[in-house]
Amino acid sequence: MSVASSPVRSRTGLVRAVLGRAGGYLAVFAVALTITFLLPRALPGGPLRTLGGADVADLDPAVRAQVAAAYGLDQPLPVQFWRYLRDLARLDLGESFNGGRPVAEAIADALPWTLLLVGTSVLLTAAIGVALGVIAGLRRGRGKGNLLLAGVLLLDAAPAFWVGMLAILFFGVHLGALPTFGATTVGHTGLAAVGDVATHLVLPVGVLVVAGIGQFFLVTRFSVASALHAPHVEHAHARGIPHRRVVARHLLRPALLPVHTQLMIELGWLVGGALVVETVFAYPGLGRLTFDAIQGRDYPTMQATFLTLVVTVLVMNALADLTYPLLDPRTRTRGAA
Amino acid sequence: MRAGLLAGRIGAVLLTALAVGAVAGPWLLSTDGRERLAAPYAPPSADRWLGADDLGRDLFAQLVIGARGSLGIALLVALAATTIAALVGGLAGLAPPWAAGIVMRVVDLVLALPFLPLLILAAAFLGPTLGVRAAVVAALVWAGPARLIRAGVLAAWSRGHLQAARAMGASAWYLLLRHASPVVAPLLVPVFVRAAMTAIVLDASLAFLGLGDPTSPSWGTMIHWASVRGAMLTDAWLWWALPPGLAIVLTVTALALVGVATEDRLNPTLRQAR
Fold this sequence. Notes:
The complex is a heterodimer.
Chain A: H1 7-42, H2 46-52, H3 61-70, H4 77-89, H5 103-138, H6 143-157, H7 160-174, H8 190-227, H9 231-238, H10 243-255, H11 257-280, H12 286-295, H13 299-327
Chain B: H1 3-28, H2 59-94, H3 97-112, H4 115-126, H5 130-141, H6 143-157, H7 160-167, H8 172-184, H9 188-211, H10 219-228, H11 237-240, H12 242-266, H13 268-273
Helix pairs in contact in B: 1-2, 1-12, 2-3, 2-5, 2-6, 2-9, 2-10, 2-12, 3-6, 4-5, 5-9, 6-8, 7-8, 9-10, 9-12, 10-12
């Protein structure tokens, strides 16, 4: 396949690609906004009951009309949507039904924990998954490679919550070695506080890694095994380049591109999947906030956490997009390279 | 025997055994898993192979009956997701570029949505019946496979014999059925397997969070009750929380073995290399 042949063409190509990407992100964001707006209005019970709290349904009609007016629910839908967007632009996410705390505050508290948890897990998952995948790919069809494959498939098959339960039992209860609850212990300062946060991370991150490496492993193994006898690799061998060097420089670099794509596909899963693990370990992140909000029918919090999750996935996607040209020189344009 | 083939056979045998157990097993049991027959938290014995839960109900019976719930949703979701993925991916592969572009943007959109929160939301508000759970999981998992199938159709389209047939005036439908489908159809096997795996784990996660269907037992709901009723604090986790988890691991591994075996067989570069 020919790469952009003239600087002019490549530049318009870049602009188009960037615009296309940005348009895609905007579209997803718009759909997420619409879903979160319509959610309390479409669900059983109607918006009044869901936005105003359960007991509103029992009030007499005059008072109900007042409550509806107070929430702006007597306005036509487009007006309501406009107001929703306006409040959102001011970062006014409303107040939680559960204690009346501003939702923006709750999100600001929870988001850093999820980013820490998911960020650490994603990096470790990708690193371990890819390393094992390369090993198994190079030894595909041989004893060790098959053993590794079987082992990873077994690990991958275990549901995260179940692994989490067993991990709590062994590392927390029996060994008493690691904290199994929350993200911090009260009373630590300075370095001790950092260590405290790190020890709280070990089990949740471990579970997320175990649950996640399978995909990276399989994609890497497949990609590496497919590239083993690619013409450019055979040619490098024929030129007498040492095997290790062929693997490192000629085989792995192109073979690892699908892994990057896999990472992007998995991000939505990984951020959402943290929910289960956060619940198991009572980790004070976004996932648990979401789950508690859904359980308690806390609509303002639910809307906000859902939107935050979508935006988080989009931002991570954009980061993955931006780093892709670093890996694949073919997607670099002359001006940018 | 080649390792891939062996793995595929082991997986197929395991799956068949599980399916037979799920279909026939409940008829062979003397209890439906709801009767109180033993002491609470009773350990395994000759009569009750996996002991009893907090209400004295037979856990082995629950495990066998739960297989129906877990395998049932896997089958439903895999069928639905594969059908949607084949239709969307196939049509996007044949459609003019502008239409395919729109379809693929929708696919991107679904991929960017936070799956699990959406699923929990739907289960919490639409009710946890089998149909709802299957529909929601299927609505979320078709997107990735659709992209794969579209790529397969596009690749098939550019093959020499297909281009030749086209040059000789074959119609699009003839090309699709006679020449493209043999290339694309094998892709559906890994898609089906992957959707089934995802469905089992997602559904169990949902049940673990307490959003399962209380009227139809599954492996996920067993683990949920074990966790809620304090089985993890006593030895009861050994016969209450461990077996359903192992059953999930066994089923998903069996599916994965079949998936890996077919994927390896399908890749022409790997076959050549052998």
